[in-house]
Amino acid sequence: MDSPTSSDSFKDAPSTRIPNTPAWGDGVVAESFPALAGDAEADVCVVGLGGSGLSCIHELLRLGQKVVGVDAGIVGGGAAGRNGGFLLGGTAEFHHKAIAGLGHARAREIYQLTLDEIGRISADTAATVRRVGSLRIAASDAEERDCDLELKAMLADGFPAEPYKGQEGTGLYFPSDAVFNPLERCRMLAHNAAGDGAELHEQTRAISIGDGKVNTLGGKIRCKHIIVAVDGKLEILLPEIAGRVRTARLQMLSTIPAPEVDYPYPVYRRWGFDYWQQLPDGRVVIGGCRDRFEASEWTTDSEPTDQVQECIESVLRSVVGVQQPVARRWAASVAYSNSILPVLEQPRPGVWAIGGYNGTGNVIGAIYGRMVAQIAVTGESELRAVFEG
């Protein structure tokens, strides 16, 4: 993207200057991949060039597969490059609730796998990651009590967590968590995958999938296996999964640099429904409020709306304490599964699907990408026993 990045360039920036464009692209060099023009052949075709799809592609390359990857938009153009940039341990549920839903041993093993994955992400794309930890901040007495329960569960299992009280409020600090630029990571992964031999195509929408081929407007890809690694709108691409996942819209905004505040840690507040972080250049990136407009946010529309944006801006002003102008507003489609864990299914012969990350796919989505690659190619994965129980 050609957006300016200095503090001066954001001065008095109107919020509609670049509609529905995330803050993450500022200063990041975009590498484009051509749309498919003609037929292609591969061992595996991966549909979706977000974080999970690119993780899948790298694992497929490690397994010696010839890979073609396609995306209806651009690399990281969906939720993978438009989210809050949090790298959090565990599932979408807080650890004590994951224990209640999955069983103690399984929840503990999954939490450890996610911590290991944060380390892997930090090592693979170090330039995009800041290992600063994260905060969970309570917005009510009930949430403070829940933080106490989570802390006890974390410490009992030997995971790092500490009580916290500071300018953000009262809650918990998780020193092993991190933040990152999700779009920049996707672009780095795509660049590296292409360098290792993967054939990648942007602006190449999959029209039909199955029978050993992926049909697009530009041509067909014949392959042994197809892996669908999209999150939002997964049930549209594969209607068989409609009962397992449902698409929702998540909305965010960002400001110009805000010297009046200093947030060294990313913040999850009010049960995770409001979340923000301050970037190294001082900009604040914030999202949330979906629960306050839940009926309208169960949608496949990925355009920001006035009512949710006004709510987020109200949190920005009254809770976060930022008074600087808004520079970006954007939205993305994500999928929620009907369980704690995401979907990994084979809805059609030769077709595998992953998604439904419940709004927290940056870490667990990368794990699922590797897992589905292993299952598709070898028929098994050590990870599968953990996640499928």
Short description:
This protein is an alpha+beta fold. The protein is built from 10 helices and 19 strands.
What does it look like?
With 389 residues, the chain is of the alpha+beta class. Among the domains are: 32-82 and 182-244 and 339-388, 3-Layer(bba) Sandwich (FAD/NAD(P)-binding domain), CATH 3.50.50; 247-336, D-Amino Acid Oxidase, Chain A, domain 2 (2-Layer Sandwich). 31% of the residues lie in helices and 26% in strands. It has helices spanning 51-62, 95-102, 104-124, 141-156, 182-195, 234-237, 294-297, 306-320, 361-378, 382-388; strands spanning 40-47, 67-70, 86-87, 129-130, 134-137, 162-166, 169-174, 178-180, 199-201, 206-210, 213-216, 219-228, 245-255, 267-269, 274-278, 284-288, 326-337, 343-348, 351-355. The strands form three sheets. Strands 1, 2, 9, 10, 11, 12, 18 and 19 form an eight-stranded mixed sheet that branches. An eight-stranded mixed sheet has the order 6-7-5-14-15-16-13-17, with helices on both faces. The longest helix has 21 residues, at 104-124. It is globular. The N and C termini lie far apart (43 Å). Mean pLDDT is 94; it is low at 1-16.
